[in-house]
Amino acid sequence: MGLIAAMVLIAAPAFWLPAATAQDGDARPEEDPPSLELVSQSMWIAEEDVFRVSLRLLGAPDGSTVDIDVGLPIRSRSAFLDRLADPSTGLVLHQISRLAVPEPDVNGIASLQVATTGQQTGATGPLLSLPAEGVYPLSLVLRSPEGIRLGSVHTFLVRTPQPDSNQPPLLVSTVLSVSGPPAVSPDGSVDLGTTSEGLETLADVFDPRVRPQPLAAVSVDPHLVDALAISERPEHAMLLTRLQQAASNRQITSNTYVPLDSDAWIDQDLSLQIGWQIEAGAAVLDQFLRAQTDRTIMVLTTSASPELLYRLQRERVELVLVPEALLDPADELVSTSARTSFLLPALDDPMKAVAIDSTATAHFTRADSTDAAPYLVLADLAVRWFEDPQQLRGIVLAPPLDALPGSTGLGVLLDEISAAPILSPVDPATFVDSLKPEVLRQVRPAEENGFGEDYEAALSDGQRIAQSYQNMVNPIATVGTPERELIETLDRALLLSGTYGLTETERDAYLAVVAQTVRDTVAAIQPPSRQRVTLTSRSESIPMLIRNNLDHDVTVRLDLNSDKLDFPNGDSLIWRLSPGVNQVQVPVQVKTSGDAVLEIKVNSPTGLLALGESQLTVRATSLSGTGVGIAVAALAILMLWWARNWWSRHRSKSEPQKSSVAP
After folding, report:
1. Omega prior to 475 cis, within 30 of 0
2. For 248, phi and psi rounded to 5 degrees?
3. Structure pTM?
4. How would you class 398 by CB atoms within 10 Å of its CB: exposed for 0-12, middle for 13-18, buried for 19 or more?
């Protein structure tokens, strides 16, 4: 009964087992039963080698011993999975009984070493017999001094073959991916939640002080890196620094700023905006990770319609990595190599793609002991190689960083892949070059359309508003200035609004931030106050006082309108306002004397943002041009009449008076 109970627990599955319950006649009931955990082990065993294993003993009494049971070698994945489900599957090939447990260290860890051999020898002492190449199931059973079973661990080790040029290694490409919900809320606060654990794991596993740099690509949602960069929390600044060190000389895949439901974007005629998301994502990674993003490779997270692939090709993406769960199961193939590397249908030429296998790395979430999980993954990879050692094949792994409590297991996995004689770590591009894609496969459409009917219009409005404010400060704004930070805040809110999985309310909240932030900002621009201006000449400049209560310069457009005034420089003037009160001189020409109303509207340079409006009353006391002309003409006529009249009188006086008497 005790053994059956132990096997049931393994099938759960578990990688270490506590002592059996009181119903097990082979065990003693205790409040805190002794147990056994795997800490580390040798994985790759040559013909004559040493198997090393470290065990954490919890509550084991002095004088406890360990039995080692070795099962028949496994060379197929189906047999491997059967063994995981039920460790009793298969016959015991070899057993070593009652090995003395060395004195544990201060952490309760004891280490064992057992010589291995591929054939029977006359050597004395414990000897682990591994007569053939393959993946060997191995059980370690902890027993009390009285022989009572206290706990057990089930693992695997691999007897590797002799080097053979006709047996190419299994190509293994590892992508460490960190994704999560928006870490920046609409109000600008930063909360990474549990995503910070995945980022910490990524920084730890690539820490150059811990291990040599293993070969693995990195895929991180840019919005998470952006959140670290704008956060004011010291721990976030420290994490960003560590990620910068981890990303040094490493392949960073291209990502959209946030995960997208690409089908929804295509349906909303937002294919061009996908390019905007890609560019924004690359800019964030380049700037804050201080690494050159490889824009030719991208990891798909939701869907991939032909229209999307066409857009990605326009954005210079050459290879996409697709989780196996996104692929249509009707397209799955028998051939492992063909199933891994394939083509996706685009509008023009098909796109190269590689499937990310989730079944191997699922052991990280299945095992109760995370220390044992990497050895399960390695055994899984070894079994795949033994299935067909003569054919070149490969697999792409994406370990679930968010499900790992630390980087130890992941580091072990990467180190052991590099050390394995039957595995070869490669980058995704090399993977595809080695395994030429030939088969065309389909990607399932997204389960739901994440946008409402008006998202495209709302996003366009938000982008126009943000661009209008940017036109008010560029090219004045520089990096680090308040106006540049505001521009980045607006862009960030617009980008986050497109995140896959948001509710309509959450999307609207991000879009509302843009309009409200700009309105609150431009409210600091005060138009001229109402006043009366008197002009004494036909052409003059009207002084206007416009207050800029911001702490930086802005550029505005003054739109002018009046029935009785002309504007020699045009009725729309672009003006740069400094902080404080600005006097703006507006040239005008008077059409006629009397009062005129001048309407002034202060707008953004594009005219989309209304910053304020006012009216001035203009009184013209001078004659208009027409009146002056009439007056001059009248004066000329008057002068001409006066001259003629004067000449007539003067002539009549100067002539002699004729006599009225005849001579």
Report:
1. yes
2. -60, 125
3. 0.82
4. buried
| pLDDT band at 271; cut points 50, 70, 90 | confident
Q: What pLDDT, on a 0 to 100 scale, did the predictor assign at position 225?
A: 96
Residue 21 CA to residue 98 CA, distance in Å, equals 22
Question: Helix or strand or coil: residue 43?
Answer: coil
Q: Which of 37, 39, 17, 41 is nearest to 27 (CA)?
A: 17
Between CA 266 and CA 663 the distance in angstroms is: 124
Q: Which of these ranges, 350-364, 393-407, 461-475, has the smallest mean pLDDT?
A: 393-407
Note the pLDDT of residue 168.
Answer: 93
Q: Which residues contact 204 (CB under 8 A, 6 or more apart)?
A: 210, 406, 407, 411
Q: Among positive and negative, which fits the CA dihedral 486, 491, 492, 498?
A: positive
Sheet holding 35-41, edge to edge: 35-41, 49-58, 109-117, 127-129
- For 330, counting Cβ atoms within 10 Å of its Cβ (0-12 exposed, 13-18 middle, 19+ buried), the class is exposed
Instruction: Choose the most confident range, by mean pLDDT, from 261-265, 341-345, 380-384, 476-480.
Output: 380-384
Sign of the four-CA dihedral 449, 454, 457, 460: negative
Q: Cα(240)–Cα(230) distance, rounded to whole angstroms? A: 10
C-beta neighbour count of 635 within 10 angstroms = 10
Residue of 317, 312, 313, 304 lying closest to 440 (CA atoms): 304
Number of H helices, E strands in the chain: 17, 28
Q: Which strand (E) or helix (H) includes residue 243?
A: helix 234-246
Segment 307-328, tens digit of pLDDT: 899 999 999 999 999 998 888 8
> Taking a C-beta distance cutoff of 8 angstroms, is the pair 458, 506 a contact?
no
Tell me the HSE value of 505 on the side-chain side, using a 13 A CA sphere.
0
User: Could you give the angle at the alpha carbon of 66 between the alpha carbons of 62 and 70, nearest 5°?
Assistant: 175
Between CA 554 and CA 611 the distance in angstroms is: 12
Rounded to whole angstroms, how far apart are CA atoms 449 and 136?
Answer: 48
> Which H/E stretch holds residue 175?
strand 170-178
Q: Are 57 and 142 in contact (CB under 8 A)?
A: yes
Q: How far apart are CA 160 and CA 135, in angstroms?
A: 9
What is the C-alpha separation between 398 and 219, in angstroms, rounded?
10
pLDDT in tens, 615-656: 999 888 865 555 555 656 666 676 776 777 766 766 565 555
**Mean pLDDT, to the nearest integer, of 432-457?**
81
Say how far apart CA 21 and CA 113 lie, in whole Å.
31
Average pLDDT, the chain: 84
pLDDT digits (tens, 9 = 90+) for 212-258: 777 899 999 999 999 999 999 999 999 999 999 888 888 999 999 99
Query: Phi, psi (5° rounding) for residue 45?
Result: -115, 125
Give yes or no for a contact between 452 and 504, defined as CB atoms under 8 angstroms apart.
yes
